[in-house]
Write a structure and sequence with these properties.
With about 260 residues, this protein is of the alpha/beta class. It is built from eight helices and seven strands, in the order βαβαβαβαβαβαααβ. Strand 5, helix 5 and strand 6 form a beta-alpha-beta unit.
Amino acid sequence: MTGRLKGKVCLLMGGGTSAEGAGASNGQAVAYAFAREGARLAIVDMRLESAQDTVARIEADGGSAIAVRADVSNHDDVRAVVQETLNRYGRIDILYNNVGIEYRGGVVDTPEAEWDRVHDVNLKGVFLACKEVVPLMEKQGGGVILNVSSTASLRWGPVEYIAYNSSKAGLNHMSRVMARQYAPKNIRCNVIVPGMIDTPHIRTLYRDKTPGELAEILAERNARCPMGRQGSSQEIANAAVFLASDEASYISGALLPVDGALSC
């Protein structure tokens, strides 16, 4: 690696995995890539042991990271992880908001409580993290915010996830508003927009399926992608490293699809 993030500190919200032993999640792949490029990280996850697994691999490769447990929709938790990051590293140069949940249902059959839960995690969680980190970045003279959305924010899909669609669409616009507001402060804010990515999370969505049924589902997902295959978590990480690095120093307010032309 080239040390593109050397000297940087990243607070990564959502750096564990929902399915152990099924490859790296998007958050883990980004954490590993950032560490290889020289960043020091605070890895946050709802499950502390999952964040610890990510940290263990980073440390085994010679990197520096700490694991912190938090519910990103809880303001006290968010304040605590920001403070713990500062206590360990003294600054935050990159805020990476990766946490996302979904509820399967349309506008009629989605319960109000599930609508609120999805928006609390996917949108309010990013709001709270930015609320705490942006003032630090202003004092430091700049920083980078990367928010993870989805092509579900841009287009219709065959599976009904209306709360997820809405929360990610809101995230897109909130990110662009922040990019414009804080451009004079040298704080860049961009959005990574993954398409269909083959991650451990996919397995959790279909945990009730037999191995044969899961193979059929994955084959169908591959067939729906213009390139004939789903993307990988490493391809998300490649985009994240670029946007977090100084190579992207004049890019802010962008929605970057990493989707193999799916959103076209």
